[in-house]
Amino acid sequence: MAHALPDIAFFHQLADAAAQQTLPRFRSAQELHVGSKPKEGFRFDPVTDADREAERVIRQIITEHYPEHSILGEEFGATGSGPLQWVLDPVDGTRPFLCGLPVWGTLIGLYEHGRARMGMMSQPFTQERFWADGNAAWWRSPYGEHRLTSRTGISLSQAILHTTSPEPVPRFPAIRFTDLAERVLMTRYGGECYAIAMVAAGHIDICVEYGLQPYDIAALVPLIEQAGGAITTLDGGRPEQGGNIVATGCPVLHQTVLDCLNG
């Protein structure tokens, strides 16, 4: 049974509230408490006041307006139950946040019966929002608002490949990332969630990400799909529960990429 989904204006309200917590702490001289959480394969997985406080205010607003909805967030886990679930990453890209690099974002996704329906990536420093409203994908910046369309009809040899960090590549030798990198036009690193938004926008063609959690990807799944692209796990399954994820702007190219990564 389909359920009434919130208006996209509510996503903007949540993003505005999160920005009030993240933006004053970004490139700021004020004291920022930085801790580390255990994460397999990493000596340091940072968490800051910005992460915690942004998720706290988002949760509060959701609970006030939709007390029947459940929430899954990176910092405070899962609460509630029901067919509609908000999936939150208050600062996706805490490492670039700490480095003063504006490729982090606040991710707000909405699942219906476990399927990603709507999502938003907000980057308050660049004053950009990328969102999927259930039908189409959009981008808003100081330069205007436009519908997003991913790039299709491109060959693998002309494609631009991205992964956030080269560090996982040797840890996952069964994933033939180097083989893929040798067949594309060029490979870039370090874009975090911003790079996946650029797949939806048609500037990057392929993103490969390792070991994602649901909150890393929930907001970005509908963004890619409603821009015309494809996003799956490495074995071609649905991506909502995370894992090793491949996003492409061109659904025809997607299977070629999966074949190459799987050897």
From TrEMBL:
Keyword Membrane included in the entry's annotation: no
Q: Which source organism does the UniProt entry give?
A: Mangrovibacter phragmitis
| Any one Gene Ontology molecular-function term assigned to this protein's record | histidinol-phosphatase activity
Tagged with keyword Magnesium: yes
**The EC number(s) this enzyme carries:** 3.1.3.15
Q: Which family does it belong to?
A: Belongs to the inositol monophosphatase superfamily.
> What does the entry list as the binding residues for Mg(2+)?
E74, D89, D92, D216
Q: Which cofactor does the UniProt annotation name?
A: Mg(2+)
List this protein's GO terms for biological process: inositol metabolic process; L-histidine biosynthetic process; signal transduction
Keywords, comma-separated and alphabetical: Hydrolase, Magnesium, Metal-binding
For this protein, the record's NCBIfam families field holds: his_9_HisN (TIGR02067)
Q: Top EC class per UniProt? A: hydrolase
Protein name in the entry: Histidinol-phosphatase
